[in-house]
Amino acid sequence: MKAYIDADVIAYSAGFASEERVWVAWDGDFPVEVCKDKGYLKQEYPDLEITCQAEPSDTTLALLNTDDMVERIMERLRDLGPIESFHLCLTGEGNFRQEVAKTQPYKGNRTAPRPHHHARIREHLVLEWGARVVKGYEADDALSIKGWEWWRNRKGSPVIMASIDKDLLQVPGLHFSWQTHNKEEVYEHIEELEAHRHFWSQVLTGDNGDNIPGIKGIGNKRATKLLQDCETWEEMQAKVKETYLKKEYTLDQLNETAELVYLLRTEDDKWEPVTQ
Q: Phi/psi of residue 172, each to 5°?
């Protein structure tokens, strides 16, 4: 197998693991309370500004954490089967989704600062682990492109996509999601119909994590029920279009959400808008 790894997650996870983070409630220039629970502060002080402060470790520890995380992921992948090569991918400049998002800013809800050592960790991943920095799109897209390339041809070594991002489940093939502090490890094979169903479900629900709007009131369970009888991409598209229009949304809104959640299948791929 050829393993493609989402290194964006590694850069953030290793960085956060290398620092102590606290949240501060501010009344003007006066810090009212400091704690590790942002939710508590927001509940206790709904009218105050809440900011994050970090006490970073030294750079050496951050890079050691990075190496340890990469090595553990690679070790688990080797346990699943022979790995011909490892390819780490990082998101670079010029993400096209920033221009697509009109309703609300793409990932505009992410207010917490990046880890202190984030840039140094990314540099380390490139210099020491050969990570590829992609431009114009995201690391997820890079994994998707490789996954679809193998799926279309079914020749040579299979591709396994390694990430904890659920968005990649819209790509058929082998997936590995490593264990985190709140999620178990998952190794699975996704068929093409299941991948399509996951994509169109995302178009219905949107993605709160990336600040992408969907249809208000439709969550994962409702989306699954709406699509359960659909057996082709075209049937799913028709059902989603019908639902958007029935809920008094426009096709522009549908297409904006679809283009934001859609992972590229080739480097020059573009979302094909749904029309009347």
A: -70, 155
Chain Cα centroid distance, residue 236: 23
For 11, phi and psi rounded to 5 degrees? -60, -40
Could you give phi then psi for residue 189, rounded to 5 degrees? -115, 125
Q: Are strands 173-177 and 186-190 parallel, antiparallel or unpaired?
A: antiparallel
Q: How far apart are CA 102 and CA 238, in angstroms?
A: 24
Coil/strand/helix, residue 162:
strand
Euclidean distance between CA atoms 267 and 143, whole angstroms: 11
Whose tokens are 């479900």? That residue is 201
Burial code (b: 16+ CB inside 10 Å, e: under 16) for 133-151 equals: bbeebbbbbbbbbbbbebb
For residues 32 and 48, is the Cβ–Cβ distance under 8 A?
A: yes
Task: Tell me how far apart the alpha carbons of residues 256 and 258 are, in angstroms, rounded to a whole number.
Answer: 5
2, 90, 220, 248 from 242: Cα distances, Å = 40, 37, 18, 10
Token representation of residue 89: 């991918």
**Is residue 145 within 8 Å of residue 266, measured between CB atoms?**
yes
**pLDDT grade, residue 22 (50/70/90)?**
confident
* Residues linked to residue 3 through DSSP beta bridges, in sequence order: 86, 160
Q: Which residue has the tokens 């990649």?
A: 168
Helices and strands, number each (H, E), in the chain: 10, 9
- Tell me the CA distances in angstroms from 98 to 102, 112, 144, 194, one per residue in order: 9, 18, 19, 28
Mean pLDDT of 52-74: 91
Burial class (CB in 10 A: 0-12, 13-18, 19+), 66: buried
pLDDT band at 89 (very low <50, low <70, confident <90, very high): very high
Q: Which of 83, 117, 93, 82 is nearest to 5 (CA)?
A: 83
